[in-house]
Amino acid sequence: MRLLICRSHLTKVRNKVAESDTELVFIGIGRSNQQEFIVEKVYECKNISDNPRIKFYADPICIYEVHKEAELSNRSIVLLIHSHPTSPEPSYEDEQNMKVWPIPWLIIDSSTGESKAWIIKNNKLLEINIDICSC
């Protein structure tokens, strides 16, 4: 299983994350099959959490708009990206939400820029390979 994302998308997200003292959230749209998730566009959604320094809650209106954009372009939501103030390991809350959003989750450490991608398959947390391309 692998996640394919453009270097320019990942760089833009990492730069925004590095400048923020809150968790940020982004949604990626593109194409996927059971083994490959190809990210073609990335959209930032506002974090409306009551405590955005340690958790995120993506603005549902933004999620709706991204979903609509994906449908209009014959694509789907294939990635959720968010930042952590520490290591890019999923929190317990992340793992629970990954069961609701069974797509890859890319987590970025806002202090180092390190990133890892994860997915839940058959109730198991799996790390996914990240392939960065020059799109």
Please explain how this structure is put together:
By secondary structure, the chain is an alpha/beta fold. The chain has a single domain (2-133), classed as Cytidine Deaminase, domain 2 (3-Layer(aba) Sandwich), CATH 3.40.140. The protein has 3 helices and 7 strands; from the N terminus they run E-H-E-E-H-E-H-E-E-E. It has a 7-stranded mixed barrel.
Q: Can you tell me the overall shape?
A: globular
* Sheet with most strands: strand arrangement: 1-3-2-4-5-6-7
Predict the CATH topology: Cytidine Deaminase, domain 2
Number of domains: 1
Order of helices and strands: EHEEHEHEEE
Query: What's the β-strand tally?
Result: 7
Main sheet, how many strands, which sense, barrel?
7 strands, mixed, barrel
Strand content: 35-45%
Short structural summary:
The chain has 135 residues and is an alpha/beta fold. The protein has helices spanning 7-18, 60-72, 92-100, and strands at residues 2-6, 25-32, 36-45, 76-84, 105-109, 115-121, 124-133. The relative contact order is 0.23.
Summary tags:
135 residues, Cytidine Deaminase, domain 2, alpha/beta, globular
Task: Annotate the secondary structure layout.
Elements: E1 2-6, H1 7-18, E2 25-32, E3 36-45, H2 60-72, E4 76-84, H3 92-100, E5 105-109, E6 115-121, E7 124-133
